[in-house]
Amino acid sequence: MGLERADLGVLVMVVICCCMQIAGGTVYKVGDSAGWTTIGKVDYKQWAATKTFKLNDVILFEYSSQFHNVMQVKHVHYKSCNASFPIATHTSGNDSITITKHGHHFFLCGVPGHCQAGQKVDINVLRLSDSLPPSSPPAALPTSSPIVPAPSPSKAAPFSVLSWFSCYLWLVMPVIVALF
């Protein structure tokens, strides 16, 4: 019977880990199997265009730290491949960057000539309203129905999947502990 409980415990922990990955965002390896490199002529603009980035997604840069780095820069420096004013510099060869803001996030390799050779990427995180197709014009309202004003927007932070999962985890954890 002890073995069955251990198996159940392992299963529960695997499910929790999987749920945490889903709630935490998607991990995108820049350049897919090629990684962050100048070899093979990876088209990072095309790579990014095929992705839909969201908040809490993780951008993973894998590269040889002996030959490359990752610099987050402003748009003007991205366009001109100017690595002189980085917002952040990463040099580990295995850099995970969590996206916490909407908008464009510009990265380039600061090794001379690499950005000019195409080793730069624009990660664009759209707001939900930016990614929705334009809606059709509303149908005419019947003249007999009163028009009710929409409620004013709440200043409260939106309830995210991550906060739901955290609450759920706090409720489930005592049950898991009680099983052992």
From TrEMBL:
<dbReference type="GO" id="GO:0046872">
    <property type="term" value="F:metal ion binding"/>
</dbReference>
<keyword id="KW-0472">Membrane</keyword>
<dbReference type="GO" id="GO:0005886">
    <property type="term" value="C:plasma membrane"/>
</dbReference>
<dbReference type="GO" id="GO:0009055">
    <property type="term" value="F:electron transfer activity"/>
</dbReference>
<dbReference type="InterPro" id="IPR008972">
    <property type="entry name" value="Cupredoxin"/>
</dbReference>
<keyword id="KW-0325">Glycoprotein</keyword>
<feature type="domain" description="Phytocyanin">
    <location>
        <begin position="26"/>
        <end position="127"/>
    </location>
</feature>
<keyword id="KW-0479">Metal-binding</keyword>
<feature type="transmembrane region" description="Helical">
    <location>
        <begin position="7"/>
        <end position="28"/>
    </location>
</feature>
<keyword id="KW-0812">Transmembrane</keyword>
<dbReference type="InterPro" id="IPR039391">
    <property type="entry name" value="Phytocyanin-like"/>
</dbReference>
<feature type="transmembrane region" description="Helical">
    <location>
        <begin position="161"/>
        <end position="179"/>
    </location>
</feature>
<dbReference type="Pfam" id="PF02298">
    <property type="entry name" value="Cu_bind_like"/>
</dbReference>
<protein>
    <recommendedName>
        <fullName>Phytocyanin domain-containing protein</fullName>
    </recommendedName>
</protein>
<keyword id="KW-1133">Transmembrane helix</keyword>
<dbReference type="InterPro" id="IPR003245">
    <property type="entry name" value="Phytocyanin_dom"/>
</dbReference>
